[in-house]
Design brief:
heterodimer, A: 382 residues, alpha/beta, Peroxisomal Thiolase, Chain A, domain 1, nine-stranded mixed sheet, B: 138 residues, 1 helix, Thioester_dehydratase-like (chain B), ChsH2_C (chain B), Zn-ribbon domain-containing OB-fold protein (chain B)
């Protein structure tokens, strides 16, 4: 069994620009981030022996483009949390001796759509037969399908769901790379343009261009790199269904309940030891589900936990400290950016640095609650 | 007949009976031979036990409104605002649908309100199982 701290992240970088990057195609966003991560580690493409990325970009495209001859590849594609699963699989591969130095990349021209791949719904797929005919049009119409049920069962108000966006904007205000930085109020959120009731535009993620890359190796080798190693304490993964209408419980994600606790248990930590947290926020309800399903709040208590300021700057559990998908950036598959922020926090280099943070939990979701991946990081080797 | 432009489902061998049923005004579910529990979407085995011993049966068409969003942006084949809903059938399974014969507002669309199936032709080949507020609740 892999031990906490056995594998480390030695390279972590985003694309040089994020937001609107009309001068780069999707594959170059991958490469730009990968080159930045290699530069900080002093590695060349020939030093990388493992590659992971998520469709529509296949590992063979990235390997060839960058000039890498991998001994191990992973193209796991379960939506925006795929990178959390790549981290988990890469750690296992390094542990098993299949590869020594693994590169995980993301790039998406979500806004500018340069070389972006359209994904038409297939009318023979189960989604095409049993969801698409009823008029869903992308994640804003599907991801929030369970929200009204959650609100009714948990006693959560529209103001509570607006507060998630308000707090994250407060974090974004500290981050020069965040797309939206001006403070907002609950009233601003509740008066913003309706997209798909109950959610308004300020409760929906951004659509941006950007990329990110990670380089993993064994903790023993990490000492030889110029960067501060960030250790992987534990990981978890699961999937439920890619049809949100078939999610078993609309108030709780099965994939979250498997991935999160698996990672925390593998890390061998108590939840009270967690200094920093990222919960992939494609929409405003996700941090609530994440806090409850990962056991940081009891069912029904997450909204109050956020309302009372626990996740704000200065709160006891700083959450989504880059501003999140709601205010920082969201290319379409934001999980890579959540991982980057956890690593910045562990390196002590985040724009809104949580002083003295030693353990970070990074929790990802795949589209419409279909999948989940969780990574527990630390800047101390246990 | 529904407005043109709405995406049209294409049945597979495993789902053909469901769509044939809709066309005949029957909501056909399947039941696990081991547990007796109903399931959806259609498949020729039970997701509960893996048995291939399953049977098709006609559901009552009665349901409750489980959750929804009201979409406010234009989509081909739809006139916003329109609700994309999930109903929970009396037999247990849930399915995505649209709500007809009802205002598309949060006030009119109350969670857990009784619903009933309203088969609505998409074209000459496909009929969709839409839902309306149940008559006794009006």
């Amino acid at each position: 069994m892999i031990r906490p701290g056995e594998i480390a992240v030695v390279g972590a970088a985003e694309s040089t620009k994020i937001g609107a990057v009309p001068g780069m195609s999707q594959i170059m966003l991958h490469a730009d981030a990968a080159l930045n991560a290699m530069a900080e580690t002093g590695l060349k493409p020939g030093d990388i022996d493992g590659v992971a990325c998520v469709g529509p970009m296949m590992p063979q495209q990235i390997a060839h483009y960058l000039g890498i001859t991998p001994k191990w590849v992973d193209g796991t594609g379960v939506g925006g949390c795929s990178f959390m699963l790549h981290v988990r699989h890469a750690a296992a591969a390094i542990h098993a001796g299949y590869a020594k130095t693994i590169l995980i990349t993301h790039g998406e021209s979500g806004k500018s759509r340069i070389n972006a791949t359209p994904r038409p719904p297939e009318p023979e797929s189960l989604n095409g037969q049993f969801e698409v005919p009823y008029g869903p049009f992308g994640p804003p119409t599907l991801f929030p399908i369970p929200v009204l049920r959650y609100m009714k069962e948990r006693g959560v108000s529209h103001e509570d769901l607006a507060m998630v966006a308000v707090v994250q904007r407060e974090w974004a205000g500290k981050n020069p790379r965040a797309m939206f930085r001006d403070p907002i109020t609950v009233d601003d959120v509740l008066n913003s343009r309706m997209i798909a009731y109950p959610f308004r535009i300020l409760q929906c993620c951004l659509v941006t261009d950007g990329g990110g890359a990670l380089i993993l190796t064994s903790a023993d080798r990490a000492k030889d790199f110029p960067t501060k190693p960030v250790y992987i304490l534990g990981t978890g993964e699961s999937v439920e269904t890619n049809m949100v209408s078939q999610m078993k419980d609309f108030t709780s994600s099965s994939a979250f309940r498997v991935a999160g606790p698996t990672a925390i248990e593998a890390a061998g930590i108590d939840r009270s030891a967690v200094d920093h947290m990222m919960i992939y926020d494609a929409f405003a309800h996700l941090p609530l589900y994440g806090l409850e399903d990962l056991g940081f709040c009891k069912p029904g208590e997450a909204a109050g936990f956020i309302r009372e300021g626990n996740t704000r700057p200065g709160g006891k559990l700083p959450l989504n400290t880059n501003g999140g998908g709601l205010s920082y950036t969201h290319t379409g598959m934001y999980g890579m950016f959540a991982l980057q922020e956890s690593i910045r926090q562990m390196r002590g280099t985040a724009p809104a640095q949580v002083e003295g943070a030693k353990i970070s939990v990074c929790h990802g979701v795949g589209g419409m609650f279909s999948a989940s991946g969780t990574v527990v990081f630390s800047n101390e080797k246990p | 007949m529904l407005a043109p432009g709405r995406p049209k489902p294409k049945p597979t061998p495993e789902t053909q009976h469901f769509w044939d049923g809709c066309k005949q005004g029957k909501l056909l579910l399947q039941r696990c031979g081991d547990t007796g529990k109903a399931y959806f979407p259609p498949r020729p085995f039970s997701p509960y036990t893996g048995t291939r011993n399953v049977e098709v049966f006609e559901a009552s068409g009665r349901a409750k409104l489980h959750s929804y969003v009201i979409h406010h942006r234009p989509v081909p084949g739809f006139t916003p605002p329109y609700a994309i809903a999930v109903v929970e059938l009396e037999e247990g399974p849930r399915l995505m649908t649209n709500v007809v014969d009802c205002e598309q507002t949060p006030e009119a669309l109350q969670l857990d309100m009784p619903m009933e199936v309203a088969f609505t032709p998409l074209d000459e080949e496909v009929t969709l199982p839409l839902f309306r507020p149940a008559k006794e609740s009006k």
